[in-house]
Design goal:
The protein is mainly α. Among the domains are: 114 residues, no CATH class; 35 residues, no CATH class. 51% of the residues lie in helices and 6% in strands. The strands form 3 sheets. A 4-stranded mixed beta sheet has the order 1-2-5-6. A two-stranded antiparallel sheet has the order 3-4. Helix 11 packs antiparallel against helix 13 and helix 13 runs antiparallel to helix 14. The protein is globular.
Length: 573
């Protein structure tokens, strides 16, 4: 039993950190590498970086940091299977899971950029490391058999290493003032607690990752750049050792390489045949045609080689074919960005349709001298179809688009017939105002009560001692002129049209939340229009979520339960 337990312990160590060289590995590792190599891709996958370790800390850190994690690890596990690739068994997934895996690496990038390698985090880490280095020789930790270790040597003894917890930080911070050996360390940690961090002087983007010599040279340049003290004045005393240059590398886990290139995929039709990443045209997935063409252009050399090696192949990828694909890609690629933007459901999209159409007409799809004939034909054809579609739309659809754009404080002046739209909006404001005026909202001494206008019974109000503020408020309300719904609607429109447009990068919903009290009637109209999605992509996502919920193994779920599960899946992080 002990021998088997020892082998299991070695196996656990190897799946956490596989041996770098075959000579350092155990015989069992060499045997498993031949028959069950996929076992070493579960915990620490050095082949492509997709492992359960990332699944765990991505979900944990995204939750606690409030950063959105779009990667669905349950879906990946559902489609994962072991396939043989080049004589070894590897974990593969369905070809349609490419975008889900891109979400995984994008989440990694976001966490590193916004948390792990954020400049404040880097500064705090440096300050704590500096403090611990100064305290290294002055703190003794008892290990096994009573041996004493310092902070830097405790890693060599398991008993001492387990005592390296956050209590070391508190021990130094709470040490008495008489302990001069820890005075400098204590001052640094106190600055960390009081948020008196080292000052960040700036950030630059060098070409490539700087080495130690380049970082040292940067320190010298920073120290030399300080202005010399005036004659008779004391020098600042800053030397190059007091500057710190931190190199931060942000990528998707494989430096300049695409991490998905190291992943193998299988298809629904051929579950045992493995292929590399490929984009396929899909009628229900917008932009897939452009992505497929872009991928073929990227892999043109490999495709030619495969076709040349296959004697049975009756087709060949010629340079004329590549030129045609490049021309098509140049025509479709600029539009794909707008397609992705209009497919979102977490932000306002309906009000962006008219501005985007105007931008496409005047800039994106406008003819350019550098366009080849096919690209120019594609652009003119797409523009003609767009103009014909929205010109032939019903008056109701055109009215809807105009109203959506008008109530968005970013784009309300993107079209000419502003007076007609204002009349339509004003009519809706009057209708909504009259509907809501049937219910009075009465505020008495800080408590809100709701009562129907025609109700005979009145809610008994609690008597409270009148305050100076409440007395003055009553006087102000009594002196305020009473406007009709029509007058209020007209006044709100006049003020709204005189407001400055906000930046296109700002959130219009946040703007309306802040200005709702200024435009009570117009805000109700905005709430009605801005919740509309510009495309059916949001509905398609709901259908996909429902399909993942009602599986063949869960086919007996009742409709009301399905509705609740789909609602929770789409609205809970």
């Amino acid at each position: 039993m002990w021998h088997e337990a020892a082998e299991d312990l070695v196996f656990i160590k190897e799946i956490i950190k596989p041996p770098e060289a075959q000579e350092e590995s155990s015989p069992q590792y060499k045997e498993r590498l031949k028959k069950k190599s996929f076992l070493y891709e579960i915990v620490a996958n050095e082949r492509n970086g997709i492992d359960v370790d990332k699944f765990d800390y991505f979900a944990r850190d995204s939750y606690h940091l409030g950063i959105e994690n779009n990667f669905d690890h349950g879906r990946f596990i559902k489609f994962a299977r072991v396939c043989e690739v080049d004589g070894q068994k590897h974990i593969c997934t369905r070809d349609k899971e490419v975008n889900n895996l891109y979400d995984l690496f994008h989440t990694r990038y976001s966490l590193h950029r916004r948390a792990y390698q954020h400049k404040v985090v880097q500064i705090i880490e440096h300050m704590i490391a500096e403090a611990f280095l100064k305290a290294d020789k002055h703190i003794q930790i008892e290990g096994s058999e009573g041996t004493m270790f310092t902070l830097s040597t405790a890693i060599g003894d398991m008993e001492a290493y387990t005592k390296l917890t956050d209590c070391v930080f508190d021990q130094i911070l709470n040490s008495t003032g008489t302990e001069d050996d820890l005075r400098e360390t204590r001052e640094i940690l106190k600055k960390v607690v009081d948020r008196e961090h080292y000052r960040c002087l700036g950030e630059i983007k060098p070409e490539g990752t700087p080495n130690e010599d380049e970082i040292s040279q940067s320190r010298k340049h920073l120290a030399a750049a300080l202005p010399l003290p005036r004659e008779g004045a004391e020098a600042d005393g800053l030397t190059e050792e007091e500057f710190e240059v931190l190199a931060v590398t942000l990528d998707y886990g494989r430096k300049e390489e695409d991490p998905i290139d190291s992943m193998d995929f299988y298809s629904k039709k051929y579950p045992t045949q493995v292929n590399k990443k490929k984009e396929q045209d899909c009628p229900t997935r917008w932009g897939s045609k452009q992505k497929m063409i872009s991928r073929i252009i990227e892999q043109a050399r490999a495709i030619r080689q495969v076709l040349a090696d296959d004697r049975r192949a009756s087709i060949h990828l010629t340079w004329q074919d590549v030129d045609v694909l490049k021309a098509v890609n140049e025509g479709l690629e600029p539009v794909s960005t707008f397609t992705d933007a209009l497919s979102g459901d977490a932000y306002v999209t309906s009000s962006s349709i008219l501005p985007i159409l105007q931008l496409l007409k005047e800039d994106i799809l406008a003819p350019s001298e550098s366009d080849v004939e096919l690209t120019a034909q594609l652009k003119s054809g797409m523009l003609a179809k767009l103009e014909a579609k929205y010109a032939n739309d019903s008056k109701t659809a055109q009215k809807l688009l105009r109203n959506c754009t008008f109530v968005d404080p970013r784009y309300r002046e993107y079209y000419s017939n502003l007076d007609e739209t204002k009349r339509e909006i004003e009519t809706e404001m009057i209708v909504l105002g009259r509907q809501t005026s049937q219910v009075k909202i009465r505020v008495e001494e800080g408590e809100s009560t709701f009562a129907q206008q025609d109700a005979g019974e009145e809610q008994p109000a609690k008597k409270k001692k009148a305050t100076l503020a409440s007395l003055l408020a009553r006087r102000a309300v009594a002196a305020r002129p009473v406007l009709t719904v029509v007058e209020r609607a007209h006044a709100e429109l006049v003020v709204y049209t005189q407001e400055d447009a906000i930046d296109t990068g700002e959130n219009p919903l946040q703007w309306w939340k802040v200005n709702e009290t200024r435009f009570p009637l117009l805000s109700m109209v905005a709430r009605k229009y801005l919740c509309i999605c510009a495309s059916s992509a949001a509905s398609e996502r709901i259908f996909s979520t429902a399909g993942n919920t009602v599986t063949p193994q869960r086919a007996q779920i009742k409709p009301d339960k399905v509705n609740m599960l789909v609602f929770l899946a789409r609205n809970l992080d």
